[in-house]
Amino acid sequence: MPEITLVRHGQAKQNATSEEDYDCLSELGRTQAKWVGEHFCKLKLSYDVIVTGTLTRQIDTQILMGVDTKMPVVRDERFNEIRLYDLAGLLKNQFGIDFPKDELSFKQHLNLTFKKWENGEIINPPETFQNYKSRVSEGLNEIKDLGEKILLVTSGGIVAMAVKHTLNLNTEALGNCLLASYNTGITKLLYYDKGFVISQLNALPHLETPERWTKRTYT
Q: What is the dihedral of CA 99, 101, 103, 105, to 10 degrees?
């Protein structure tokens, strides 16, 4: 049965204030990408195809992983991250809601953003919430036919939506999945009986050592 291994990109630039500013790996993010790739190589994992979005942080993570594939790498913009900075800017301009300053307020802000976005209350968003849902679903259903083993290097919002589709979660749970998504976290989907099932979720085997324990990040 087809298996899609999703890897979130490494840690992005810290203290970013825009989508473009965020779209590059930090030094730690580059190291995380190398570590997860070394882990795959130690296990002698191979893939029929590797797929990424078209964002720099996704492509750089895939390249730094150094994992071999039997086909040319596929770049598919359907697996690009949602534009949270742009949505946050619209939330401030349209509703006077400031960007969060701490972790607790970030959780509340994210859930509010998703709620207003899904309900169509945000005017002129970078994409509709329905498009976000459908592009992830359609993308996963298409790449599952590319081989038995597929590696997808993408972003937290895409992994979260894949989990939402698989488990039929509500939108608040979608936000919680995004908040809990580790950089270079590994999630696996098996296509079984006309649908996906989760066989691994947000795992970090390459960071489960005392010296790497503090290198786990969410950004």
A: -60
- Domain containing 139 equals 3-82+131-215
DSSP states of 52-121: E-SSHHHHHHHHHHT--BSSPPEE-GGGSPP-HHHHHHHHHHHH-PPPPSSHHHHHHHHHHHHHHHHTT-
d(Cα 198, Cα 28) in Å, to the nearest integer? 28
pLDDT digits (tens, 9 = 90+) for 91-132: 999 999 998 877 778 889 999 999 999 999 999 999 999 999
Q: Residue 183 in contact with residue 203, Cβ under 8 Å?
A: no
Model confidence pLDDT, tens digit, residues 136-183: 999 999 999 999 999 999 999 999 999 999 999 999 999 999 999 999
Q: Are residues 44 and 59 in the same domain?
A: yes
- Would you say 9 and 153 are in contact if contact means Cβ atoms under 8 Å apart? yes
**Statement to judge: residues 77 and 140 lie in one domain:** yes
Q: Which CATH number fits the domain that encloses residue 77?
A: 3.40.50.1240
Measured distance CA(182)–CA(159) in Å, rounded: 10
